[in-house]
Write a structure and sequence with these properties.
single chain, about 100 residues, alpha+beta, four-stranded antiparallel sheet
Length: about 100
C-alpha cells in the first residue's frame, strides 16, 4: 500500500471561498478515481504557528494507482486552476504502509 501526503500552504489573503472551492473540487476525486483506497482532506486547525494551511492524505494499492491519481486530468485541472493561484508552498511524500 502506498500513502501520499501533501501539505499545502496558501498565500496570505486566501479567502474562505477559495479554500472551499479547493475542498469541493478535491472531494469529487474519490467518485472519479477507483484507485483511491482512502482519501482524506482538511484545513489545518491552526494549533501551531508553522503549520501548513491544508492537508491531503491518500492511500493506493500500488505505485501505478498513485500515478493514475497524480496524472488524472481532473486532478491536474484542480491543481492548475484552484490550488496553484493561492499556493505559497507545498510539501509532499509518498511512502509504503502496511
Amino acid at each position: 500500500m502506498i500513502r501520499h501526503i501533501a501539505l499545502l500552504t496558501f498565500i496570505e489573503g486566501t479567502t474562505d471561498a477559495q479554500v472551499q472551492a479547493v475542498e469541493d473540487a478535491l472531494s469529487t476525486l474519490p467518485a472519479r478515481l477507483p484507485q483511491l483506497h482512502a482519501y482524506v482532506i482538511g484545513r489545518d486547525l491552526a494549533l501551531n504557528e508553522a503549520n501548513a494551511s491544508f492537508a491531503v492524505a491518500a492511500d493506493f494499492a500500488s505505485v501505478d494507482d498513485y500515478i493514475a491519481y497524480r496524472d488524472d486530468t481532473e486532478h491536474r485541472r484542480i491543481i492548475a486552476e484552484l490550488i496553484a493561484p493561492i499556493l505559497a508552498a507545498r510539501a509532499g511524500a509518498q511512502y509504503e504502509i502496511s
